[in-house]
Amino acid sequence: MSIEYGNLYEITSQYIHSDKDQQLMKDAYVLAEKLHNGQYRKSGEAYIIHPLCVAIILAELHAGPATICAGLLHDIVEDTPETKEDVAIQFGEDIASIVDGVTKLTQMKFASLEQKQAENHQHMLLAMAKDIRVIIVKLADRLHNIRTLGALPEEKQTRIAKETLEIYAPLAHKLGMFKIKAELEDTALKYVEPIWYAKIVSQVKNNSSVRISSIDHTIEEIKAYLTPERISHLEIKGRIKNTYSIYKKMMNQNKSFEDIYDILAIRIIVNTVGECYQVLGIIHAHYTPVPKRFKDYIAVPKPNLYQSLHTTVISNDGLIFEVQIRTEEMDRVAELGIAAHWAYKENVEYSREKEQFEIASKLKWYADLLKYSEEDKNSEAKDFVDTIKEEILTTNVYVYTPTGEVIALPIGATPLDFAYKIHTNIGNKTVGAMVNNRIVPLDYELKNGDIISIKTNKNSFGPSENWLRIAKTSHARHKIKSFLNKQNRDVLISNGKAIADEEFRLNKISNELNDDFVNVNFSKNNIYTLEDLYLELGKGNLSVKTVVKKYMGESRSQEESLAKQMERSQRILTTNSETGVVVEGLKNPQLKLGSCCNPIPGDPIMGYVTKGYGIVVHHCQCKNATSFAKERLIPLAWATNPNRKYPVSIKITSVTNNNVLLEIMNVVSANGLSILSINANNNSNLETIIKLKVLTPSLIDLEKMIVNMKKIKFIHNIERENL
Fold first, then answer.
1. pLDDT beneath 70: ranges in the chain
2. What is the pLDDT of residues 24-74, one digit of tens each?
3. Mind listing the pLDDT tens digit for each residue in 400-432?
4. If residue 375 lies in a helix (H) or strand (E), which one and from where to where?
5. Read out DSSP for 2-59?
6. How do 637-638 and 646-655 pair as beta strands?
7. pLDDT value at position 397?
8. Could you tell me the sign of the dihedral formed by the alpha carbons of 152, 156, 157, 161, in that order?
């Protein structure tokens, strides 16, 4: 079948109705066709077919116009004279950035094939952390490439197929994109294990007719049981397990094809969560459940957002089969994964930072990737990739913190691995562990559903050599090795810090030294970091009086700078009384922004009519809203371009560290915002709680700042106050 632009338009026109966006995509296609003219793929077809097919795959995911344009243009910087700057001039910086991200994944030069693969994967993962759309385009690119793998030499087929199974299919799984994952796996298996692939396909074909007949009969039975229940929407269908899943189960569990019972499954789709549990009860009432085979992924979703009820039962004719019960929305997420959550919507304000922020808040593993990418981006490529592959792409054990947060770990992980997954400082200060309210040794092997509580002691001496035997994950072992390697050095650093602390105490000032101070004042002595400074003090190579003298001069100037900034911010706030809020039908309403929730442009808002204060503007999710009288609520909207800045309060939870306040101030300043107030207090959990109030023109600017602030390694959590 020939592919042309009309095939892409047919899909995008169903959900992208803006003429401007449609023209943008058409322009991208025209440019790609022009630049790739005369280029051909190994299959002999015109090269433009590849980017067009990539764009069609993206459109089937309901990706936005920018992502589809990037799919059409993703090879032009690598394969034609066009540059990133050329793309930016014609299509904007956003699209150029995605194209550049995809291009950089394949442009690196390496000393060896092994190094090339490791560093290529490292760059891919770091690009993914920067903008997840880069990896979505890359997955679509890989999917079309593997569909046409037959045109390549056998050696390349095997290498690309193995890479697909090791990196791309697990990434698709982690993103919950089941359809893409299944096709990547099955097609790759055909090239990696052609004999097994052919054997399983043949057995499924020969065996499935009997099973399908039995499943069809069971589906009709289930329909008869459910019809009297008056369920508003009911859809029942059979599903054949994908070839790679059958192969993996046969290999991992040493089973023959005949021993695998869930090759066929029944999927029941209803309207509501309540109906899911209602259907489950009816299924168990008419069929015998297989013990220990029930999974409730609705109450506890998988880390890739997958939700469904799973139960394995025995039919009336003795066939064992799996039943999956879910809502229509859950089924959509199961097929499209994270793409279902940020599928393109008309008239919704776009923000790359907001998209990244929302994905990180929904996908715990993506938040982990952001953290590892920031912490370990300078690590050896192989170490970095091994950590991500082991701890993010192949996690199989799901355990819980005492507060109910799900933590994913590889099989065989121990409480030490759990501790280091939470935070390096927690791992280093671990002195014991409790699992399900029972004390366990640190080498206890964690199991699905375990609830783990780590006991720490701030006076702990830290990891020992024995911990390297206990820890199973690359991340934990890397952190333990780093600690042990630094231990001798740390004795001198600790002595140096003690010397500094004593001198600061004698001068009746707080020791808040940081890297910036050291770099500015001592770089001429080849001392660039706070650790270097303490090390030199510990060795006796530097006078502590010199350090304190320089600090007393600089700290006053920093305090004065912050005080001036806060004073200036307060002046901006008090001299501009315009709210930037529109009340339909009223010309000059008396409006006041709620000081409890501090709404800002981009937030959903409502008005509350008060006595004496006029209309108070609140965020729709304000905690005080539950006590409002509904008859006093009125709809409000933000002006198109409110020309002012707004106060907003955020709460930051971080590891206690002298540098964290300075780093927060630097991020606020780098993002063009200004500080109204900032204060910090320590709690009993060895954490610092920072209350920060800033001035921002909009929600987009605030979210951009929060995304950048989350990169500070000391920070655990950031949230808006009173929402």
1. 1-2, 104-130, 207-213, 261-262, 303, 338-396, 488, 553-562, 564-565, 568-578, 585, 640-642, 658
2. 999 999 999 999 999 988 888 899 999 999 999 999 888 888 889 999 999
3. 888 877 787 888 899 999 999 888 899 999 999
4. helix 364-376
5. ---HHHHHHHHTTT---HHHHHHHHHHHHHHHHHTTT-B-TTSSBTTHHHHHHHHHHH
6. unpaired
7. 76
8. negative
Strand-pair category, 637-638 with 687-696:
unpaired
3-state secondary structure of 475: helix
Catalytic residue among 27, 45, 60, 78: 78
* Per-residue tokens: 494: 């600790």
Catalytic residue among 27, 79, 296, 443: 79
With b meaning 16 or more CB within 10 Å and e meaning fewer, what string describes 335-372?
Answer: bbbbbbbbebeeeeeebbbbbbbebbebbbbbebbbbb
**What is the rounded CA–CA span in Å between residue 406 and residue 532?**
38
Do 5 and 29 contact (CB within 8 A), yes or no?
yes
Mapped to the 3 state alphabet, what secondary structure does 642-691 carry?
A: CCCCEEEEEEEEEECCCCHHHHHHHHHHHCCCEEEEEEEEECCCCEEEEE
Q: Are 197 and 246 in contact (CB under 8 A)?
A: no
Neighbouring residues of 454: CB distance < 8 A, sequence distance ≥ 6: 415, 418, 419, 422, 426, 430, 432, 433
- Tokens standing for 467? 């911990």
β-pairing, 605-609 vs 633-635, is antiparallel
Q: For residue 279, give every residue at least 6 positions away whose Cβ sits within 8 Å of its Cβ, in sequence order, or none.
A: 226, 231, 268, 270, 325
Q: Which residues contact 241 (CB under 8 A, 6 or more apart)?
A: 260, 262, 263, 264, 265
Residue 175 to residue 306: CA distance in whole angstroms: 10
475 Cβ contact list (under 8 Å, min separation 6) = 372, 387, 390, 391, 417, 420, 421
CB 100 within 8 A of CB 377: no
The CA distance from 52 to 65, in Å, is 14
- As given in the structure block, the two tokens for residue 203 are 């057995």
DSSP 112-149: SHHHHHHHHHHHHHHHHHH-HHHHHHHHHHHHHHHHTG
Please, which residues bridge with residue 438 across strands? Answer: 435
Distance CA 170, CA 248 (A): 13
Contact by Cβ (8 Å): 29, 52: yes
Residue keyed to tokens 């385009």: 137
Distance, CA of 704 to CA of 701 (rounded, Å): 5
The count of other CB atoms within 10 Å of the CB of residue 645 is: 22
Measured over the CA atoms of residue 168, residue 172, residue 173 and residue 174, the dihedral's sign is: positive
pTM: 0.57
For tokens 């300075």, the residue is 662
Cα torsion through 408, 409, 412, 417, rounded to 10? -120
Is 79 an active-site residue? yes
- Which tokens is 398 given? 């799901």
Q: Give the DSSP H/E element, type plus range, for residue 591.
A: strand 591-593
DSSP label at residue 601: B
Q: Is 258 exposed, middle or buried (0-12, 13-18, 19+ CB in 10 A)?
A: exposed
- For residue 626, which amino acid is it? T
CB 664 within 8 A of CB 690: yes
Distance CA 570, CA 200 (A): 71
